[in-house]
Amino acid sequence: MTQLSQRAQSLGTENAFVVLAEVNKLIREGHDIISFCIGQPDFHTPKNIQDAGIKAIQTGKHGYTPSAGIPELRQAAADYFTRTRGVKVDADDVVVGAGAKPFIGYTIQSVTDFGAGDEVIYPVPGFPIYESQIKANGAVGVPLYLREDRNFSFDPQELADKITPRTKLLILNSPQNPTGGILTAQDLEAIADILRKHPQVWVFADEIYGQLVYDGEFKSIAALPGMQERTILSDGCSKTWAMTGWRLGFTANKKLAPYFTNWITNTESCASHITQWAGVEALNGPQDDARHMREVFLSRRNLIVGLLNQVPGVTCKSPGGAFYAWPNVTEACRLTGCADSEVLRKRLLLEAGVAVLADIHFGPRVPGDGQHIRFSYAASDEAIKAGIARMADFIQKNTITAA
User: Fold this and answer.
1) Which of 24, 203, 236, 339 could form a disulfide with 249 if both were Cys (CB 3.0 to 4.6 A apart)?
2) How many structural domains is the chain composed of?
3) Residues 178 and 101 in one domain
4) Which residue among 239, 257, 284 closes a domain?
5) Pick from 146, 90, 137, 88: which is nearest to 113 by CA?
């Protein structure tokens, strides 16, 4: 009898896509659903970038490229990292892939050995692919809890306590999915001080939302003394330039660049030739549209946080970046008799027509932090107002009164 490998059976998924499929099915059946479940800008890709892609098609950019990417894009990405991270990055240190996501797996595969007990510390709640790739690649995941009373950062002492001689990688994500939390300059200094005592630990800096910071300035740990050499800088075009479906990401690390290139040769061969030329325009061209999208997201953040904090049983901190709100719904669950946030999520979808994600879609719940759900506010003001009104109405109508 044929069997599946443990690796295949242990591979997780990204529940935003699972819930989105459920939402689309309900919509096809005629249900009225307002969706906040997918982290995708609701803007079109800027026209100058579209035009660059069309030009690439028309001028014959149809073939394979070097696995690491076309030289023009590697240079553009190096220049982009240099001006946005405050470090000097060389084009030879940049590797281009079909989105930023594959580099999570490539990094874990490059710095840990399967079944050797190598540990990877990762944020919880966090992007679910971190945990999925850790498990699938035979490493040991060590959750690092992001706490609400720290604005969804973590206690540096907790990080220090979790590092062992087996720790090979620390994953940092700032601004963060799903909470919108950011690592401040003070946070990064404390993390770097700890890591200097543990030279065996690499850092995967997932900075895909780095240009969507609303409170203060974006900071990268790579800019701190001694950190660039051991940091894998990871970014891409999906969020900043509304290019999710184009699939284009890039990383920078001098030592690991040749190994990432080999992984790409073994898997995707190269990123889309056409998309790479669009990426050159995204990085080097006018940034007016990117700045406009950021301003709109900031306005939406203020709108959704204000509205959520008026909903009975809901409190919501203001996220410092990205386009996610992470409200605490512990009291809302109690009021409506929902056992937890996942029950609330399902009822909001089926009874109120509001699609969100629950905290359990992003790892185990943080001990002592209660129940949360995630809203992606990559949606119109009208959708935000209507969706939060439906949620408030659902809670008011379903509040269980004391006997």
Assistant:
1) 236
2) 2
3) yes
4) 284
5) 137
The neighbouring-strand residues paired with 323 are none
Q: For tokens 């281009």, name the residue.
A: 96
The residue with tokens 């949360």 is 372
Structure tokens at 103: 């580099």
**What are the DSSP calls for 164-180, one per residue?**
-TTEEEEEEESS-TTT-
DSSP 286: -
Contact yes or no for 127/146 (Cβ under 8 A):
no
CB atoms within 10 A of CB 151: 18
Number of neighbouring beta carbons within 10 Å of residue 163:
18
What are the tokens at 363?
Answer: 């790892």
86, part of any domain: yes
Closest CA to 305 of 189, 179, 207, 198: 179
Host domain of residue 128 = 63-284
- Is 55 contained in some domain? no
Among 267, 284, 301, identify where a domain stops: 284
Q: What is the CA radius of gyration of the chain?
A: 21
Q: Can you read off the two tokens belonging to residue 302?
A: 């203020």
Q: Is residue 373 helix, strand or coil? A: strand
Question: Each residue's pLDDT tens digit in the chain (403 positions)?
Answer: 998 888 888 888 777 777 878 888 888 999 999 999 988 899 999 999 999 999 999 999 999 999 999 999 999 999 999 999 999 999 999 999 999 999 999 999 999 999 999 999 999 999 999 999 999 999 999 999 999 999 999 999 999 999 999 999 999 999 999 999 999 999 999 999 999 999 999 999 999 999 999 998 899 999 999 999 999 999 999 999 999 999 999 999 999 999 999 999 999 999 999 999 999 999 999 999 999 999 999 999 999 999 999 999 999 999 999 999 999 999 999 999 999 999 999 999 999 999 999 999 999 999 999 999 999 999 999 999 999 999 999 999 999 875 3
